[in-house]
Amino acid sequence: MAFVGGTGVLVFMDLVALMSRQTLGLLNNQPSVRIFEGKTFKFVLYASFPSREEALGLELLEGLREI
């Protein structure tokens, strides 16, 4: 679980993208990269922005959430 505000979300965008690529099987089964094993793993990211228009990477994260 992570709580971020403003540009703090940028630190977690790569992590969310990595988890999405693993879920889609796009990591070519590289054992050194597969760190999110098991069906019980869940990552929750809470982000706060002054407004939706000022949200950094929100559209990307929302798209990845659907995966």
Q: How much is the average pLDDT?
A: 81
What is the number of helical segments per DSSP (H or I, 4+ residues)? 2
Query: Uncertain segments of ≥5 residues (pLDDT<50)?
Result: none
* Quaternary form: single chain
Roughly how many Å apart are the termini? 18 Å
Task: Look at the helices and sheets and give the structural class.
Answer: alpha+beta
Which term fits the overall shape?
Answer: elongated
Order of helices and strands: EHEH
Main beta-sheet annotation: 2 strands, parallel
Strand order of the largest sheet: 1-2
Strand content: 5-15%
Radius of gyration: 13 Å
Structurally, the number of domains stands at 1
Q: How many runs of DSSP E, i.e. beta strands?
A: 2
Summarize this entry quickly.
Helices cover 34% and strands 12% of the residues. The protein contains two helices and two strands.
Could you please describe the fold and organization of this structure?
- The structure is a single chain.
- With 67 residues, the protein is of the alpha+beta class.
- Helix content is 34%, strand content 12%.
- Strands 1-2 form a two-stranded parallel sheet.
- Helix 1 (10-23) links the parallel strand 1 (2-5) and strand 2.
